[in-house]
Amino acid sequence: MALLQKNVLTLKQCLRIMSGMLEGLAFLHEAQGNKCTVVHRDIKSKNILLKSVESANEKEVALTACIADFGLAAVFTSPQIDEQVTGQVGTFRYMSPEVLEGATEFTVPAFQRIDVYAMALVMWEVLSRTCVSEDDDQTDVPPYKQPFEEYTSAYPSLGEMRDVVVNRKLRPEFRPEVSKHPVGGAVEYTIRDMWHTIADGRITASLARERINAMNGCDSQGSEGYHSSSDHNRKVSMSSVVGGDGLCIPAEVSVNSNCFPETDEFQRER
């Protein structure tokens, strides 16, 4: 996503890009009808393509995103995975803690959570180059950097990333102005739920999509996305107001799921 290196995004552009990425990932992970579950296994910013689309706002370029490069992707027709399909593939910088440790469960949900972790890092990259308030100066947004860039070499080894992500439990940091912003803070909350140290504590791509679509003022049920019946027990309750920039600002977000219990352990490890 070379765009991030030279351009600062508006919040609307940021949310639209994230929505497109999550629509794609949720669709891949979906098993519906004759469509099998697909896991990408190499989600990173270089594998996200952007294109401009028509926008009612002539002052702003509308961008949408899609996922590319399926060279490492795997297609599954059952919940269990043959152990010959190795879990330790992809780009070291975007590998989840369990992949770096070589402790991946050989189930489809486990492989999906690996994709979700990597997508969280890409979303952080997008948010890090976003001017969250219309009143802010775009020059205040720091230059682009890769996830963990301040902790690793330019091309980190597996050992380097294991030390940073697993041993030191580090994650990329958010700018204070992002965390304090109603929408920016809600996006940060979702990203943190996606890169959870404990794989079972991560939300699904479908739930992340629903949250971002809600912030973007979109009715996700009317979008081009695909919705799983398994999402019915993962409810996002949002009491929203419309901000001055036309975005939906979640006043409250509560996630109820038997699959992702809000235990003290999960909260400490986030």
What does this molecule look like?
This protein is an alpha+beta fold. It has a single domain, classed as Transferase(Phosphotransferase), domain 1 (Orthogonal Bundle). 35% of the residues lie in helices and 14% in strands. The protein has 9 helices and 8 strands. The strands form 4 sheets. Strands 1-6 form a two-stranded parallel sheet. Strand 3 and strand 4 (62-67) form a beta hairpin. Helix 2 (11-29) packs antiparallel against helix 4 (108-128), helix 4 runs antiparallel to helix 7 (182-194) and helix 7 runs antiparallel to helix 8. Mean pLDDT is 81; it is low at 219-270.
Question: Which key terms come to mind for this protein?
Answer:
270 residues; two-stranded parallel ribbon; two-stranded antiparallel sheet; Transferase(Phosphotransferase), domain 1; globular; single chain; 35% helix; alpha+beta
